[in-house]
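Forgive a beginner's question, but might I ask you for the amino acids of a protein and the tokens describing how it folds?
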Amino acid sequence: MGMHYLIGHGERLSEPIVLPHGGNKLKDIYTYEESRERLQPELHAVIANLPRNPEIAPDDVHVLQFVLHPKYLAKSYHPSGLIKMANLSLIGSKPIRITTSDASGRDARLSRTLLVAGHRQSLERFDSLLQNPVLDRDEYSGIGDIVKIERISNYTLADKYHPAPPNDDWYELVLHQLDEGLAPDNIRGFLAFAKKLGVEVEDEMNFQSNGLLYLPVHGPEGSVKRLAEYTSVRALRPMPRLKLEPIGTGVRAVRRSVELPKPPDAPTSIDVAVLDGGLPSDNPIAPWVNYIKANPDADDDWRVLGHGLGVCSALLFGNIGSGQQPLHTRITAVRVLDSETMYDDSIGMYKTLNNIENVLESYSFQYVNLSLGPDLPIEDDDVSVWTSVLDGLLSSRDMLLSVAVGNNGELDAGSGNNRIEPPGDAVNALCVGACDSENGYWTRAPYSAVGPGRSPGIVKPDLVAFGGIKDNEFMVLGPGTSPAAIPVMGTSFAAPNALRQAIRIREICGPEITPLLAKTLLIHAAERRENDDQREVGWGRVPSDATEIVTTSDGRALIVYKGRIKPGKIIRATIPVPPHLSQGKIEIAATFSFICKVDPQSPDSYTRSALEVIFRPDANRIDKGRRTPNSVPFFSVSAKGTSDLYSTESERRSDQGKWETVLHAEKRCKASTLVRPVLDIHYNAREEGGGSHTSDELEYALAITISAPKIKNLHRLILEEYPQLVSLEPVINVDGGTI
């Protein structure tokens, strides 16, 4: 049986096209008069409830909630005309499940709450317009959008407060940074109100992300909750503590001497980093590691040095004793936990994130592992500061960040306490859970946090990799200059174990493999079974041998594409199926992924980009009256793994599914039905769920596997038929020493 390497430069088979477009206008659910009669009393009551205290609402600016009817979730139905006409500003949104007036007997459905800010006088003017039954709606263009609004309400403390375990009177407060023209006294007024209440605001230790200001605050619960009544406060919760699982499994005495391979004479020039607790001075991996301290003025925190060493060991060598090849790359260990961040510090979470942000902004790392984060499961209606900051950084960097999703998988499922922890919900990262075996039979390790993620970002974890379980632990190097392995377990080790395969792909195939393409290939090659629950294992288990990821056997071929596309444009990518294949069935598996900007103030429309992909299998099949070959479904979002919030497939497909940053599907068809098949790729951009004016190109990666078992020379046929493609032969010897 032959072994064939992946085929590169698939993008040479792509070209921009123009397709006719148009759409049916949605029939409104309510008439204007029905909406006016229902909403005007609500708006009137909301205005009556607005605080008149200028300490709470400086500039007399207030925040309201406009809840959309579920039929109007799509970007094209966004009520921007109404918001503009009423002289309001959209500052964010949240997902919600509601029953509606037109279907009061039905179950609650997914919708979204728009948070809008405006002056009292603007709201009063809007109210007076709605009171007029004979209003000239042409003169007040946009007011007709009220048919899209299901209800209007105040934004109260009950909407803002997120319960969590207490933390010594420390809280995390999220503030909307309102536009200067709307509320020039917003920040100044907030700080003055906090001072009056005796609440300490650590305003120097803040993080900003797309109009949100994340702040640590300290004070008695009553005073802090009073502060949260401030009009532009978005959210409040007890400050989450930083979480780092202890090294070892309670069997510390078990140390097995091992012989490490010789460090590479000529390491590859790939920039790899582990952000963790640093390294003990007596460690056996110095020849493989550069060492940086994010805060060189701080001392070590001795409790986390072993964790840092274990994670570096997992990245360099995998599970010691399992026969995996070491990396041919030196790595950089970055100490982001130290005596200043002390992971039991009440605001250690903020101090550590500051170290991480500084490091990632200062160095051009390509592959990075992060096995720590806040001790709090993700929430559907709010985005953690860790996720906001890291997704924002990743959106403009050529970097693959692997993240451990958390070891809380055995906690209560009903409350969601077993869900993945930030930043394991980051859509621009590779978020990794743990499985219990490297062998044929495997399942999720019981401790590994479960999905789903938010929508978009519903499939989380992205992948699982071996992380050890009791009696089958993961072996890493322990402290001491003489190399000895100790048993551990946790997603902390699964994440670098997955990342090492991405780095190995890059080592084998060279710089043609970008970090984004490496992520795409890991997901594409993941071992998945029909009955796997995506909430537990995401797209599947990472192969433990990178060679398996970049090679195919006879009768199969793997083609990779790296492309860029402008907003609103369409690219037609040819699937290189050789002509005249009439034998048997052909299976096509395809995986797209991309990196995009995010809107943390609008978790329900978090991603600003979508790739809508249309499969056209036969260039000759064109329906009468049409100019484009017929399409058939290819990518669809599975309903397996949805949360209670995103519970039905139809809801998610209606708008949310297409905004995922990873798409994967497999399709079987008769060879005779494939004639010059293509994928039409349309880049759709949005901001805060509405239209976008961006001109930024979107970078995407695509991997396609064509399987035709009866065509043994498929790989050669493709290269002969499409000479612009290139087989990416290995640039290093894939054989080597193991430990």
